[in-house]
UniProtKB/TrEMBL annotation:
This is NADH-quinone oxidoreductase subunit I. The lineage of its organism: Bacteria, Bacillati, Actinomycetota, Actinomycetes, Mycobacteriales. Residues 20-50 form the 4Fe-4S ferredoxin-type domain. GO terms for cellular component: membrane. It comes from Mycobacterium arosiense ATCC BAA-1401 = DSM 45069. InterPro entries: 4Fe4S_Fe-S-bd, 4Fe4S_Fe_S_CS, NADH_quinone_OxRdtase_chainI. Keywords: 4Fe-4S, Iron, Iron-sulfur, Metal-binding, Translocase. Belongs to the complex I 23 kDa subunit family. Its cofactor is [4Fe-4S] cluster. GO terms for molecular function: 4 iron, 4 sulfur cluster binding; metal ion binding; NADH dehydrogenase activity. GO terms for biological process: aerobic respiration.
Length: 76
């Protein structure tokens, strides 16, 4: 059987899915440090830092231009 009836197996080290991870309570774990954008060799990541009332940083927006992304994995 093949996709879509049977999901495609993705190896654990597959670098094709880039997402912002979340805490168990649903909050984004990203602190908008900008390290992923700096590490990106093609510059396809853009984000804007914002701050909550208690002083915690979070990304106001986080965008990945997948038409430029080479899936190198340096942002992870």
């Amino acid at each position: 059987m093949q996709y879509p009836e049977e999901p495609v197996y993705l190896p654990p080290r597959y670098r094709g899915r880039i997402v912002l991870t979340r805490d168990p309570d649903g909050e984004e774990r990203c602190v908008a440090c900008n390290l992923c954008a700096v590490a990106c060799p093609v510059g396809c990541i853009s984000l804007q830092k914002a701050e909550t009332e208690d002083g915690r940083w979070y990304p106001e927006f986080f965008r990945i231009n997948f038409s430029r992304c080479i899936f190198c994995g340096l942002c992870e």
